[in-house]
Write a structure and sequence with these properties.
globular, 305 residues, two-stranded antiparallel ribbon
């Protein structure tokens, strides 16, 4: 492999990590908010697909990709609000409700999104961070999604808020000890519904990344299971928003290995490398989730399930 090929491969993986990792980042941050309150949302795949469709539709109808982003956030928040309300009812299981939510979100997206498969919607303008380089590969790799810096700032803000603000401490209390929160007079269901809705809005930004930047179109298979992978990613990040950034880049880079190799003329094993994110997910679940043992950093309420 020549030096130019090595530079091209490294740039391709870096660019792919930033592009492919953006949905992982927002969906994992959204799930981190939800799980910090003691609730699990396995319906994130449905949230991601529905918000991707809503974002594309909003941009197509209004001509503004930023209004499309708001539509994606609204769709994610609305679907997760349903999940939050249903899970607050007696004898309703989070996991079963999440699976039903996933099917509902995907079904709505496929039905409502049929007319959107052919049209083209206005896209988010890229941030050109590589103009300092003479390498075209680096300049191309650093054409990044403008939502990515927002995601990094959001991760830092959440990390700080969980430890230093009253809402953050209340959220952690609801997730670590619901009885303690009730004893102090707080509504655990209210806190968890609010966290689930907020998490859905943040996950909706991940859907906007899919249809308004990369790959930048709407089709029924656009998510590729990223919503489900994000649940494992949160476990890998130990429920830490800052670690979610690194985990998202890791998964994004893993998903970019195949296309990066193809870009430098190496086509062997392309489809094999495409399964790397799914293999990573299995490895993380095997080593992080042991029977009878709560993963480090997990909210305390999960030990009772």
């Amino acid at each position: 492999m020549t030096s130019d090929q090595i530079i091209g491969l490294a740039a391709g993986i870096l660019g792919g990590a930033l592009r492919v990792g953006a949905p992982f980042l927002f969906v994992s941050l959204g799930e981190c908010i939800t799980e910090k309150g003691g609730r699990i949302n396995l319906g994130l795949e449905g949230v991601l697909v529905l918000s991707a469709m809503a974002g594309f539709a909003g941009s197509w109808l209004t001509g503004s990709p930023w209004l499309g982003v708001l539509c994606a956030m609204a769709a994610g928040a609305a679907l997760c609000a349903l999940h939050g309300v249903l899970c607050s009812l007696p004898r309703v299981n989070d996991v079963a409700t999440g699976i039903a939510l996933m099917l509902l979100g995907m079904g709505l997206a496929f039905f409502l999104g049929k007319p959107l498969i052919q049209p083209q919607a206005a896209q988010l303008p890229p941030l050109a961070l590589g103009n300092w380089s003479a390498s075209s590969a680096i300049r191309s790799a650093l054409q990044i999604n403008p939502l990515v810096p927002l995601g990094v700032l959001l991760a830092g803000a959440l990390w700080w808020a969980f430890a230093n603000t009253r809402p953050g401490l209340l959220l952690r209390m609801a997730g670590d000890s619901a009885n303690a929160a009730r004893t102090l007079g707080y509504s655990v269901n209210g806190i968890r519904i609010a966290a689930t809705v907020a998490g859905g809005a943040v996950a909706g930004l991940g859907g906007a990344c899919l249809t308004l930047f990369y790959p930048g179109s709407w089709n029924e298979g656009i998510s590729g299971g990223q919503g489900l992978i994000a649940v494992a990613l949160v476990i890998f990040a130990r429920w830490n928003p800052l670690r979610c950034v690194g985990a998202a880049l890791l998964f994004g880079g893993a998903g970019a290995i195949g296309p990066a190799l193809q870009s430098i003329g190496i086509g062997w094993g392309y489809h094999l490398f495409n399964i790397v994110p799914y293999v990573l997910t299995l490895v993380i679940l095997v080593f992080s989730c042991k029977p009878g043992q709560l993963a480090a950093g997990a909210p305390g309420e999960f030990s009772a399930r």
